[in-house]
Design goal:
single chain; 121 residues; alpha+beta; 4 strands
Length: 121
């Protein structure tokens, strides 16, 4: 089973752990990434892989920020640029990154559909 399908499988056992103020900041930040009519922020999900030991070097806690394109999925180059735009927006908010790290998040991924996620950090 690959990482993408694992994340989808685990999605049924999601655990929310981003605190209220930081969750609100994340929602506000992600709602501002794309101009209206380009992509819509859907929300985020916290995923914790219980099947991976805490002592493992493998990432076990993920945050997935979810978007949907308002039109058809763009070509690969534009999709990559969209992933980069979301990731850079997250990285520039140092307080949010620090809070996510302190909360145990090993990775943040971006999703534009239900089949695949793209890793940011």
């Amino acid at each position: 089973m690959n990482l993408k399908s694992s994340i989808c499988t685990i999605a049924a056992t999601l655990m929310f752990s981003v605190s209220g103020a930081h969750a609100e900041n994340l929602d506000i930040l992600m709602n501002q990434v794309f101009p209206q009519g380009q992509a819509t922020y859907i929300g985020y999900q916290s995923v914790e892989r219980e099947d991976i030991p805490v002592t493992s070097a493998v990432d076990r806690k993920y945050l997935i920020v979810d978007f949907r394109f308002d039109a058809r999925q763009p070509p690969t180059e534009q999709l990559q640029a969209s992933v980069h735009k979301v990731c850079m927006t997250l990285l520039k908010d140092r307080e949010l990154v620090r809070h996510l790290s302190d909360s145990g998040y090993d990775m943040v991924s971006v999703a534009f559909d239900r089949r695949s996620q793209f890793d940011c950090l």
